[in-house]
Design a protein that fits this description.
The protein is built from 3 helices and 5 strands; from the N terminus they run βββββααα. The strands form 2 sheets. A 3-stranded antiparallel beta sheet has the order 3-4-5, covered by helices on one side. It has about 90 residues and is α+β, with helices and mostly antiparallel strands.
Length: about 90
């Protein structure tokens, strides 16, 4: 079920994808209830620490990101922080 939204193709709602030429690294067509929103998130060329950080530095980066963006992550699927947390961290 491919969805075309503003000329951009998505696999479906709430399915993040990489964006090759945009200023952000990922895009998602988020849907919550009957609201639909195109969200771009993530700094191009930078990876998060991942779900299993190995070094102390990666653990500190992950902890800092989650603390810094906790309120925005809690806003839900229509926020960029929610998707950055889910995909990159």
């Amino acid at each position: 079920m491919a969805i075309v939204y503003r000329g951009e193709r998505f696999a479906g709602y709430n399915k993040p994808k990489r964006t090759p030429k945009a200023s952000k690294s990922h895009a998602v067509l988020a849907k919550e209830g009957d609201k639909v929103k195109l969200i771009r998130f993530g700094q191009q060329g930078v990876s998060g620490a991942g779900k299993n950080p190995k070094t102390a530095k990666e653990k500190a980066r992950r902890k800092s990101f989650k603390a810094r963006h906790a309120k925005n992550i809690a806003k839900g699927k229509l926020s960029a922080a929610y998707w950055a947390d889910k995909v990159k961290w």
